[in-house]
Design goal:
Elements lengths: L2 H4 E6 L3 E15 L4 E7 L4 E5 L2 E5 L3 H13 L7 E6 L4 H6 L7 E6 L2 H10 L1 H4 L7 E5 L2 H7 L4 E7 L13 H10 E12 L5 H14 L2 E8 L7 E8 L10 H7 L8 H7 L4 H6 L3
Parallel strand pairs: 6-7, 6-9, 7-8, 9-10
Antiparallel strand pairs: 1-2, 2-3, 3-4, 4-5, 10-12, 11-12
Helix pairs in contact: 7-8
Bound molecules: S-adenosylmethionine (SAM).
């Protein structure tokens, strides 16, 4: 078997490659926005790749999705309506719906083929999209937040990297619209990339959030499949501080069946290394 049949490589910024031992290729399609692939690997379960970049692996997706969802949802006083932009694999929606106060989780994903492929091949994350408390809208998230008259308590921007259809999800006018559709104690969390390889993106996003929101910060997690392992989320709110206003007792009494997030991990995630603390202007 040729090497390309035994390994699937993700090349990142042309400077680093990550190889996953391939078992079989399950799906590949070129949509109007991107190339979507789903493969089965020997060591990481199924992988969803977009334009050759690993988005989700069955083995470690719980880390990213728990950290994206439970930090804001355990901070918001009573999250009832949640909006996920991107996130077509469904993992973020699955974690959001663990919170019983959540009455509706709206997912706005630009590419319907990501949703259909995830539903078919990665039910571990996508099954949640069929929940009666979930509503899936196939639309550009930039357009949705600009035009909607709906309001949300928490918004999660679970997007690809800041190019192509995701580019405007990292811009000031998008976040001004996000602030407009957030309720009084509203919180937004966004996938912000690698502190090592995308510090510029994180810096720019921090500047925008500081200009648009009274509270902004960043927090970290680490996983198996993203280049370099260390990854950041951007955080912003209309007033809720991610550490000072965190009540660890809520996590303990909720007793959710989680595998990564807990009260200690929440607090620790906001302890930033010096180069990142400076980059986000803390
Ligand atoms: N969880 C993954 C991660 O860690 O990066 C990413 C989740 S998901 C696969 C990223 C999604 O963002 C893709 O399905 C892509 O189609 C979607 N997306 C990109 N730009 C978008 C936009 N402007 N509006 C809505 N969805 C968008």
């Amino acid at each position: 078997m040729s090497d390309s049949n035994r390994w699937i490589d993700e090349s990142y910024q042309g400077v680093v490659r990550t190889g996953f031992r391939l078992k079989r290729r399950l799906f590949k399609a070129k949509s109007a926005f991107q190339t979507i692939e789903i493969v089965e690997t020997s060591g990481h379960g199924k992988l969803l790749l977009i334009d050759g970049m690993t988005m989700v692996s069955e083995r470690d997706e719980f880390v990213y999705h728990e950290m994206m969802a439970h930090v804001p949802l355990f901070l918001h006083p009573r999250p009832r309506r949640v909006l996920v932009i991107g996130g077509g694999d469904g993992g973020a929606v699955r974690e959001v719906l663990r919170h019983k106060t959540v009455e509706l989780c709206v997912l706005v994903e630009i590419d319907g083929q990501v949703v259909s492929a995830s539903k078919k091949y990665i039910p571990q994350t996508a099954a949640a999209l069929s929940s009666r408390r979930a509503r899936v809208i196939i639309e550009d998230g930039v357009k949705f937040v600009r035009e909607t008259s709906e309001r949300f308590d928490v918004i999660l921007v679970d997007s690809t990297e800041p190019f192509g259809p995701a580019k405007e999800l990292f811009g000031a006018s998008f976040y001004k619209d996000v602030r407009r559709i957030l309720t009084e104690h509203g919180i937004v969390v966004s996938q912000a990339g690698s502190p090592f390889y995308e510090l510029g993106t994180i810096k720019n996003l921090a500047k925008i959030l500081k200009a648009v929101f009274p509270v902004s910060d960043a927090y970290l997690f680490t996983n198996l499949t993203y280049p370099g392992g260390l990854w950041a989320f951007a955080y912003a709110s209309k007033g809720v501080h991610p550490v000072r206003h965190f009540n660890s007792g809520r996590v303990k009494s909720a007793r959710l069946p989680l595998r990564w997030y807990n009260a200690e991990v929440h607090a620790g995630a906001f302890a930033l290394p010096e180069f990142l603390r400076k980059a986000v202007g803390r």
